[in-house]
Write a structure and sequence with these properties.
Elements: H1 3-8, H2 12-57, E1 62-64, E2 93-98, H3 107-119, E3 124-129, H4 139-147, E4 151-156, H5 158-162, H6 168-173, H7 182-198, E5 200-203, E6 207-209, E7 219-222, E8 228-235, H8 240-251, H9 263-274, E9 291-293, E10 330-332, H10 335-338, H11 350-358, H12 360-365
Parallel strand pairs: 2-3, 2-5, 3-4, 7-9
Antiparallel strand pairs: 1-4, 5-8, 6-10, 7-8
Length: 370
Amino acid sequence: MKSEEIITGHPKPCWRFNSWKKIWLNRRVNINGGRAILLIFGCAVLFIFAFNTLTAAWSSPFHFVTNDALTDSPSDLRREFKNNYDFVSKGDKAFFLETGGSETLNIRQACAVESLALHNPNVTAYVLFSQERVNSSSTTLRTLTENYENIRVIGINMDDYMSGSALEHWYKYTDWRNGSYRVAHFSDGLRLLTLSRYGGYYFDLDIIHVRPVTYYRNFIATEDGNSASNGAIHVDFGHPVMQMAINDFPANYRADAWTHNGPALLGRVLTKWCGVDSLPEMNYLKCRGFSVLPKASFYPIHYPRWREFFNQRAPNDTMKPDWLTTEVIGVHIWNKISHGEPVCRNSTQYYTQLVRTHCPATFSIAPDVF
């Protein structure tokens, strides 16, 4: 036996076999590694394709408005969300609804939004338009969003927004659009759906806020001490009162009665929740933590006296009105009956005083008469 064979302990044929075995194993590892890389690459391509297909097929109901221009194509502003609850930010939130088909806000509506944002900087104010097309370049919307970081303007795809909700069948398959009060009833339902979905505050676009509202939670207000109102509402997310309300709306809907699906609905729900027969009997204990705020909170002037907001006073009359007490959180202007009454920018009207004090940015762009 030769010396190299003694050193290795193996004869030459055995050494050659082991060498070929190592080469074969190395090639096998390289082949398997290549296949693994190809498999990983293929899976990645397949995942990307599937993800793009699914996200393209799903349309978010929300279209965030920028300050660029009139939105001709809502898809330009479309942003995808993981689910509907990604629509709102954390923290306190307030909602305003434009359901009349307008693509912007007028001066009086803009004042309502600004006053809320001014007195409640920690509340995010969402102005929801009931269509996707919104004129973000309008003077009022641009003024609001440029002066307040806590104001968001959003156009909604209503078919998508209603899908899967308690109001979907009512909205898509009933004849509510033929009713005399269709705009009011649409607004009644939309505020219930929005609050049941997100919780928070809702306010009409004709309320001028005069002080912070965040001290008050889980409430409605009353106009006259005897009946409920749905112009100012707060509910925590998931509150049973709002779940009862959103279920009552389609179940008991009436197209022929103006208040039946709004203020009267909340009155029906609260009498059940509080276990009483009428609104004056309701209190914080009976209603298990839900409140009915007194009429001075948002309705310091009842609608028969609405002209007091617009009466011209003597030039030297700068006194604060006696109805503007510390109980007042916001002042409801009764826009349904007062919208045609002129407001003069340089007048002594109480309305002008409210706008000048509580909506300074809006007042700065107001025309001489608005």
